[in-house]
Amino acid sequence: MNFRSDNNAAIAPEILRALNDVNGPASARAYGEDDWSRKLDERFSALFERDVRVFTVASGTAANAIALASAAPPWGAVLCHREAHIERDECGAVEFYSGGAKLTLIDGADAKVTPAALNAAIASNGGDIHSPQLAALSISQATERGTVYTPEEVAALGAMAQANGLAFHVDGARFANAVVALGCAPADITWKAGVDILSFGATKNGAMAAEAIVAFNPKVAETIARRRKRGGHLLCKGRYPAAQLLAYVEDGLWLRLASRANDLARRLGAAAERYLSAPAHTNQVFIKPGDANIAKLRAAGVEFYDWGKKGSAEARLVVSWNQSEADVEAMRGLLASLR
Amino acid sequence: MNFRSDNNAAIAPEILRALNDVNGPASARAYGEDDWSRKLDERFSALFERDVRVFTVASGTAANAIALASAAPPWGAVLCHREAHIERDECGAVEFYSGGAKLTLIDGADAKVTPAALNAAIASNGGDIHSPQLAALSISQATERGTVYTPEEVAALGAMAQANGLAFHVDGARFANAVVALGCAPADITWKAGVDILSFGATKNGAMAAEAIVAFNPKVAETIARRRKRGGHLLCKGRYPAAQLLAYVEDGLWLRLASRANDLARRLGAAAERYLSAPAHTNQVFIKPGDANIAKLRAAGVEFYDWGKKGSAEARLVVSWNQSEADVEAMRGLLASLR
Amino acid sequence: MNFRSDNNAAIAPEILRALNDVNGPASARAYGEDDWSRKLDERFSALFERDVRVFTVASGTAANAIALASAAPPWGAVLCHREAHIERDECGAVEFYSGGAKLTLIDGADAKVTPAALNAAIASNGGDIHSPQLAALSISQATERGTVYTPEEVAALGAMAQANGLAFHVDGARFANAVVALGCAPADITWKAGVDILSFGATKNGAMAAEAIVAFNPKVAETIARRRKRGGHLLCKGRYPAAQLLAYVEDGLWLRLASRANDLARRLGAAAERYLSAPAHTNQVFIKPGDANIAKLRAAGVEFYDWGKKGSAEARLVVSWNQSEADVEAMRGLLASLR
Amino acid sequence: MNFRSDNNAAIAPEILRALNDVNGPASARAYGEDDWSRKLDERFSALFERDVRVFTVASGTAANAIALASAAPPWGAVLCHREAHIERDECGAVEFYSGGAKLTLIDGADAKVTPAALNAAIASNGGDIHSPQLAALSISQATERGTVYTPEEVAALGAMAQANGLAFHVDGARFANAVVALGCAPADITWKAGVDILSFGATKNGAMAAEAIVAFNPKVAETIARRRKRGGHLLCKGRYPAAQLLAYVEDGLWLRLASRANDLARRLGAAAERYLSAPAHTNQVFIKPGDANIAKLRAAGVEFYDWGKKGSAEARLVVSWNQSEADVEAMRGLLASLR
Hints:
Four copies of one chain form a homotetramer.
Chain A: H1 13-22, H2 35-48, E1 53-57, H3 60-69, E2 76-81, H4 85-88, H5 93-98, E3 102-106, H6 115-124, E4 133-140, H7 151-163, E5 167-172, H8 175-182, E6 197-201, E7 211-215, H9 221-230, H10 239-249, H11 253-271, E8 284-287, H12 291-299, E9 305-307, E10 314-318, H13 325-337
Parallel strand pairs in A: 2-3, 2-4, 4-5, 5-6
Antiparallel strand pairs in A: 1-7, 6-7, 8-10, 9-10
Helix pairs in contact in A: 1-10, 2-10, 8-11, 11-13
């Protein structure tokens, strides 16, 4: 029973088929001039109900770092939650791509940034030449604790970002899971709520290695293109990442995959309700069952990550798009048996 | 008839099959802890007849830049040919990954660096605190003009690099084509000749998006790993690039694919012998047939890049691993008809 | 009455005289090859009772950033107090010079890092490829709240740094004030306590623009020299910064200047004892007299900075080496009159 | 007889006096808020006959690197002469401050860039995402071979820069010597000729450590201010560099100093006419008298640098603002005696 991470999962059959299909033509133009890459802007513009520019990259780290480097100068401060992926799991990629920008960390329950906390962080910046320049706000949707921001919550942050001259970035490594959980349109939690740039994840939800930087502000397109090239993320055989992303959003595949994962996670959450350490909104379930129970789960062969501070006896269970029902049922039984 | 570049070509069936096969298991450890990634070091150590460390990345630009950043400090000078890919086609990726290293350009026929030219470049460095520190030599094998360095030529450069404290890097975007053309072992033109680090290309020769940084010097492994992570090139689903590279070197596939491309290119070269502007050692053919003939080829529907200085009426024809015989025969006819 | 900062003060007459004297010879070798620059290593080696290498720079920001860039790789984490100058007042200079290192912030009373807090910060690092690599510890001596670390306290941190593979840096912008307050030898709170590199400040304590990076570990000398050059801090007319530093440490001038400032500050501290928000160990006095009293001081013409969080009604009073007794006495009267 | 470099010279008495005078007030606001720093913009605006923004830094390397980093993105190409100081003598400072911009080198007689050579360099840029983006042109005035660009020559380059979207920077480490040699107004060879930003040198011509970045385009002021701060070049005691620069331009001191140096150099040039390897326009004299004569000069106790390629038997003689007449006359005798 592997609940380590959705990044352990295989590729969805629809996406694998698309990779096989796109390999048909013996040759195709390189560096995004192929027929598939050229469809991306249009396809994503339809999805987001406005003109957007799309840039494929091979990882979420690349998407976040390139997006934020386009939003913050080397002397900029990027405001984000203390548990944000860009802070905890990317080995300083934002600092690297931006040329030395600083992450300013915000605390908050359930890995969420609240307007009050954002306001306090903004107020604590020196505001002069000696302090980094407030440049961007980055939130994760869904968050690193599986929670989501409602459209209203995003819009409140977006308004505050705009009022303070901050670019607004969303790390959407699990964007599909959030959209499904919220039952909203992608536009509702992005540009309509003031978001300027989105890391649109696909890899964790069934793709192989394909993430899209979605720019709602066309002015940053040139710098994104340059940074992607210099980072080695402008792939010559562009048809393959393009095919993944096109298949991913075709006929709502992305939402079906996320829906299944969310539903199964909800079942786990229900079975572990008394131990939940964060609301199980999406495909991640956080529990604090105590050391003995964690040992019991491991002894039963369940794979998962410890979470939170060392010694907090917290576990993260992630349900993948292709998690077997059998796994989930067995895990429910185990969770119910904890004492 | 597309002779634009081998990066326009589709994926070889053996590699596509490997991608399909590796997708079998529902889950696999992420970030290189999967069974396939773990085989890479051993497999490549066998190929190179000594212990090596292998790091997969998604593009040749990433491979070159990460490799050279591990070899040159921010104040280092990387010596390379004026026509090197790192100078002309990577938008400053080496400068980006290294934190500002400088490429010092060397002229030479057929895009090759000679010992004499290398010596002159070394001698012209100021050698004090005001000059960049001589840090690395980078050559391309095969070169940007399709030529190759013999084992002896590599070894002569390697000895000079060592004597001057330079790390020695090879951009092997078309390494397979060089190995086939030389009829040598991979070791003969790498570590046995003083090479410290190799960008081992697979994408242009039949893979989808998979290049390997091969480190012959284990001391640079830690910095390569860190730079890859920060660059967004440590993919979570590592089994897919690993599967490509394993299939690529399995049973000599890489050499068969390159062999076919080289052979077809040799046929083109023979048909265009009077126009050759560089020896057609590998799968690239450079010709200077004059403006009228270039126009004639274009009018006949041949796709290719102009090369060299503007107005030089030079063309580059690249033969891909899957180029059709029909294409090559038709092109031979066209070339023979030029006047 | 200007208690804004010791960086507002003029140059000490001894140092100004040295600048006039060193201007005597019509010419002198550039870039540190002059007679005065050449004495620095020897002079500071005597001061620190061991062989050291000294690098002059024009500002404390440059000293800190170059020192830490020599101690932390681009993917490194530098552990420091949340109120550290490198975090709050240098606009990301460490991030810039290091190529993107990350400051990991530690809380603690009186702007001091305790071994327990350091230990917790070390423990919370992920310790894998996804987390920044723990690289350096930086403390300020005296601290940003005017407090000092005893030799034992420094040594405890030094031992922990060494045990965890951290380089140990001290920001000594007010190092003289600390040495005087502690009554110790410079060696006692540096290399004897495990410190690898020191930003030795002179500007705030009577120099014009001269700080010294003092390297106790000779291995970092080459990288410091390169980073200083690239940062534009290797001055051609090196005799002038050298003359400042030589005069500064001649016959204990630096300690006399700091002693006077500390003594006057102690008087202020005694007068404001009921309001002190940090122990007045050196030449800075922090008070929390409430909003009304702060307004009263300002109305009386006292210049100073608000400190701490917005709304905390805290004030910082800094006594300079040349602060007039009259200022101090007048201020004592004002402080005594607060209600 | 020291003809090594004008950066070996002492400080002019007027400037030393200004440093002594400005030290009068016991305290002054820090970081450029003092009375002297505040006069800089106005004083230089008068000098240049238009509104300019002035930023003091401690070295010419800092001035050039910060200026060019404000003009070129990390993926930009800075076009400059192969012998430019930024290429040969600054250890990659432009690359460092810009985050990896590339210097594209242009050949030309007398260390000058011609419109034709500039045009060729522009044309040879790939002009696509794979090539660096043409961003800036940088020339030296006077050049590294002591020659000057006439106002018309600057204007021709300025027009070409503008037509190609290039920012236009002048490295004026010896700007005074050029102005004097040309007999023009500072405006004639800067903004009136299309220059956007100037490194205005004072150190080599009599100051201690003071250079001014002069921005004719107000849009770059914010980024210059930030880069200066992060580079450690925003000095706290701003009155001292400001006082140097104010004294330097007061009553034409800068022109008098340069005039004297140029005149003495002209005498040397006349005595060495048969050996001149570049026109002696300013205070540098380049001669190619052959190996034996170079040895003879050295044997006579003359200090100077070899110049040009190794083995070219070329010497550079630099006359400083305070060079003694006796030195010059003795040197004239020596030069006349060469055979």
